[in-house]
């Protein structure tokens, strides 16, 4: 079954809430140094971190006021990292599924981990803006960072040195666990909501790596049948879906939804088939919303938000040829931030959608049990298909704004 997302009722961009402009704009478009490679909201939504280029990271209180956004001030702290900043991560990161008792036991101060071009990871204290610790070991740029969502101070880093490293920041001086295996640069990593699995993708490796965060061992591959350049990955709110962004010079970009338990490819979303230069449009980032089953993905043409449950494109905005490279949801799901190669950051209002009771039940169930356990339940076929996400269309095409009709 194939569907096309030609829903052109989303012609008017959703409100642009605010915009942050770099202090030192590039002399020429495309000149290196000014890029916003990473944007992040803190787990409680009270802070926003912006890698504003030229080795600086700015911490701002959220929400911004209109004057703060224009002037670039909001009780801000500027962190001078001395190197190009590739990755940001706030921690501890608390999942909505962590029980209240565990949350009360977690009394860690809020930290910001920063991955640098020289392979160093700096960990800063958000409240004071002071450097707490410097982590060394990577031999190449750190491209991604993520804290485990169980409220601990476990940090996972992905690097161009072809390794992932797992750091326990609660244990001072402890050596990291090193995950080896890929033959290419590790670009992105994501951790399942129950903090049991790490997914990672490499730039030229046509497969996804799944690692056990409990035993620090390789689990399995999700394999493509031909060459792809992998760009990003993210788990859904219940961990039952793994979204993978990839592209190829001839076929353009793909967005795939996998079942991480069974390694089944559930659906594929493809770039506009009418565009003559689709190979020039790269899918750079994607992110599941922490609220509902919304999946945001950013390419060089636009930011789009897909309601997977209703199979509907609910936002098509940020039509900026400057080249968006990252996006991140606010914890309450009502705002998404995008960063561009020219150093700008924009904040967009996300449509408020109420998840169905049926979907909330599925999330509660799937967080706790695997696909194999669901399939063993004595339930009607349609219910089993819904619980395992087998009821979504197998293929989609997202038409660009120019070719919607």
TrEMBL record:
Q: Where is the SOCS box domain?
A: 354-393
Q: Name one Pfam family in it.
A: SOCS_box
Annotated organism of origin? Cyprinus carpio carpio
The WD repeat units are at 135-169, 328-350
InterPro entries in alphabetical order: Quinoprotein_ADH-like_sf (IPR011047), SOCS_box (IPR001496), SOCS_box-like_dom_sf (IPR036036), WD40/YVTN_repeat-like_dom_sf (IPR015943), WD40_repeat_CS (IPR019775), WD40_rpt (IPR001680), WSB_SOCS-box_domain (IPR051983)
Look up the coiled coil feature and give its residue ranges.
none
PANTHER family named in the record = WD REPEAT AND SOCS BOX-CONTAINING PROTEIN 2 (PTHR15622:SF1), WD40 REPEAT PROTEIN (PTHR15622)
Renumbered to this chain, the signal peptide range is none
Look up the domain of life of the source: Eukaryota
Q: In which pathway does it act?
A: Protein modification; protein ubiquitination
From the UniProt record, give one GO term of the biological process aspect. Answer: intracellular signal transduction
- What UniProt keywords apply to this chain's record, in alphabetical order? Repeat, Ubl conjugation pathway, WD repeat
Q: Does the keyword S-adenosyl-L-methionine apply?
A: no
- Identify this protein by name: WD repeat and SOCS box containing 2
């Amino acid at each position: 079954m194939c569907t096309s997302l030609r829903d052109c009722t989303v012609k008017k961009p959703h409100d642009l809430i605010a915009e942050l402009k770099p202090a030192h704009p590039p002399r020429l478009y495309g000149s290196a140094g000014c890029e916003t490679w990473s944007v992040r909201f803190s787990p409680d939504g009270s802070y926003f971190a912006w890698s504003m280029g030229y080795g600086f990271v700015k911490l701002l209180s959220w929400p911004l006021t209109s004057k703060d956004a224009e002037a670039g001030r909001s009780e801000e702290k500027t962190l001078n990292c001395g190197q190009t900043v590739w990755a940001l991560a706030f921690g501890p990161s608390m999942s909505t599924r962590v029980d209240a008792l565990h949350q009360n036991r977690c009394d860690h101060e809020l930290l910001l981990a920063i991955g640098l071009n020289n392979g160093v990871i700096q960990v800063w204290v958000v409240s004071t803006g002071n450097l707490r610790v410097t982590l060394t070991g990577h031999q190449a740029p750190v491209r991604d960072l993520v804290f485990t969502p169980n409220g601990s101070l476990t940090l996972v880093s992905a690097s161009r040195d072809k390794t992932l490293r797992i750091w326990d920041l609660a244990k001072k001086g402890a050596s990291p666990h090193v995950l080896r295996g890929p033959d290419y640069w590790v670009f992105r990593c994501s951790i399942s909501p129950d903090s049991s699995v790490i997914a990672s993708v490499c730039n030229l490796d046509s497969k996804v790596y799944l690692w056990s965060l409990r035993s620090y061992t390789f689990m399995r591959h999700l394999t493509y049948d031909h060459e792809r350049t992998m760009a990003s990955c993210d788990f859904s709110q219940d961990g039952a879906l793994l979204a993978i962004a990839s592209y190829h010079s001839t076929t353009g970009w793909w967005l795939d939804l996998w079942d991480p338990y069974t390694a089944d490819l559930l659906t594929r979303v493809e770039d506009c088939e009418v565009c003559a230069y689709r190979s020039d449009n790269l899918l750079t980032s994607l992110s599941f919303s922490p609220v509902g089953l919304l999946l945001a993905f950013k390419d060089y043409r636009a930011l789009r938000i897909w309601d997977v449950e209703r199979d509907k494109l609910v936002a098509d905005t940020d039509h900026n040829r400057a080249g968006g490279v990252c996006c991140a949801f606010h914890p309450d799901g009502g705002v998404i931030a995008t960063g561009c190669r020219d150093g700008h950051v924009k904040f967009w209002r996300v449509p408020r959608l109420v998840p169905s009771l049926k979907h909330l039940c599925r999330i509660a169930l799937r967080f706790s049990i695997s696909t194999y356990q669901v399939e063993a339940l004595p339930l009607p076929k349609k219910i089993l298909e819904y619980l395992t996400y087998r009821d979504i269309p197998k293929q989609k095409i997202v038409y660009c704004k120019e070719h919607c009709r």
